[in-house]
User: Fold this.
Amino acid sequence: MTSQTTDQGLQLRSLVKASGELEVSLQPTPTVEPGPDDIVVRIEATPINPSDIGLLFGPADLGSIRSSGSDDTPAVTADVPPRAMTMLAARVDQALPVGNEGAGTVVRAGASPQAQALIGRRVAILGGAMYAEYRTVKAADALPLPDDATAADGASCFVNPLTALGMVETMRREGHTALVHTAAASNLGQMLNRICLKDAIALVNVVRSDKQAKLLADAGAKHVVNSTSPGFMADLIAALTETGATIAFDATGGGRLASQLLTAMEAAAVARMTTYSRYGSDTFKQVYIYGGLDVSPTELTRSFGFSWALGGWLLTPFLQKIGAEEAGRLRQRVVSELKTTFASHYTREISLRDVLKPDVIKAYTRRATGEKYLINPTLP
Amino acid sequence: MTSQTTDQGLQLRSLVKASGELEVSLQPTPTVEPGPDDIVVRIEATPINPSDIGLLFGPADLGSIRSSGSDDTPAVTADVPPRAMTMLAARVDQALPVGNEGAGTVVRAGASPQAQALIGRRVAILGGAMYAEYRTVKAADALPLPDDATAADGASCFVNPLTALGMVETMRREGHTALVHTAAASNLGQMLNRICLKDAIALVNVVRSDKQAKLLADAGAKHVVNSTSPGFMADLIAALTETGATIAFDATGGGRLASQLLTAMEAAAVARMTTYSRYGSDTFKQVYIYGGLDVSPTELTRSFGFSWALGGWLLTPFLQKIGAEEAGRLRQRVVSELKTTFASHYTREISLRDVLKPDVIKAYTRRATGEKYLINPTLP
Assistant:
């Protein structure tokens, strides 16, 4: 059941040194021996998501990146600003594996029938350390892909699809009937737009350029507002009045956008009121911050009464909260609509060694809308 | 059952005119005729709470206040900044009555036995329009006071006591075991401190001066931190580590205080973690803003992971949420501990006419810690 070639493989690791340097390197790493219920997956496709970039480079100064290491163990090094080091205390001197999700072929398996049944199957998996040639996981955690799906098709089965479905599910569970999404032209945003069109849920897409607005309109989006337009607040209030959306998911985090969303929701609610209250409307307004594209502080003008909440939202705690059965239902929907609703498009496929090339790093850390990189660890 | 003298009385009203002026005046107003289940209360004591000042003067420029009206109907006028007028659209040209709560003697009653039983009793009442000589309310909504309680003792039975009890109750219902309070030397803060001492709940009191710190320490407070001290963050983290408080009620609203509270809670939580997560701790941290002493924008540095929430908190929706029975239990506790836990102290007792004197307005709108004004409408 074991094969010489799968016993070890290259693995990408991110190390913050006490000296204030961050080093990302490719390390030959022994493959974790599968237990009876485990499988070993040869990773063939794993995407670079914003959350992966966060773990890869943390708050390091990307302008200071230089090649380091050797041909055998290639590496890059960057400087971490001193004030950021205190936040990283818990990860200093640990070479952390990276990569949230991926897909590949099951090349070995433990003795249990469930694990054995997966040998040779293409599966999608989640759980970190995917930027590697091999990854050992529980057979029960693998999502077998349809026969016609490539590894690239299945590489992004979890993070974006479950986040987009999680937003819709959170909207329903918390009693809202329509939602707002910012950075709406992102890969995730386009996916959310397709879910909402399919499920007939009103979605207000907030974008940052006319080009992004056109992209979404061409994809059938009904409500698109441009936050850089002079008529932004009026357009937003009109869209919120029409849709009744009282929950928003904000990928930017910083600046005044969350405050503008709450203010516009309140304006739409106050317009429906018949009596004055100096505490504002009693319509409950929720904004969840799930990303940090804008690292500046969040600024709230509090011009939206007292019936509001702002909070952080993350996929993993959400999945824990809804429980295994419900999470399984969402996963199954992703597989069923893998090539339609949940299709991901990649700008470029790169090797593990490419991940460490300064010019490639510059490209994939830019996080430009519509650009997404896929790592294929089987490439030389 | 009717008495000539109670048929009408003076009532204080706040009017925003479309011209951009705010006028507060004393108007002879017919007493609302009691229905079978109603009582008419002669108001003898009604406090000036921050929320009352908000309705009385809204965003008017207090520097522009001048006397207006006549001897018969005295009034003051102030200018409203043009940019604030849009927020006030719903109250323009309505002379709104003011005064959240008060106490007095039942002078008339409807025919029902329940209402009749209250004639001659001293009661505390809630529900607006208390800055008046007479107020008609449902008998069921009145809180009969103990025989040894004066109207002044019972005047502040609702807003501060129920807000303080509501904070403790919210802490319990949302799964926290200790709490933080800002502007902790306020009348409300001192009350909350007494509740927490009596109920053995750990409370972190955040104050803005050494004098306020001493006031609370003298009242038995165990954890007092001064936000103007250079060691504030270290002191706060130490107090949060010791108490395990993960919920805070913030009266200031603006600036960085809410952000500092969340950051310090996260620091205390991260210190307990054994593995690094770039998403921060999974300890849920809650800050509720219940006031706006600092009108500047709220600024969040988001240096506290993703497991957090910030929201508005108000007494009325809280009471609606917990239901009539539970709210009744809280009210009963207030009456039982009226002269101890829930005792209020007043700086000065003034008449309805005094409320309209510019120098008195300057004094009661200052909102200085420890200063609280009581209106006695029976004074000439």
Chain A has twelve helices and 20 strands. Chain A touches chain B at residues 54-55, 58, 87-88, 90-91, 94, 96, 253-254, 259, 270, 273, 275-279, 282, 289-290, 292, 297-303, 305-314, 316-317 (CB under 8 Å).
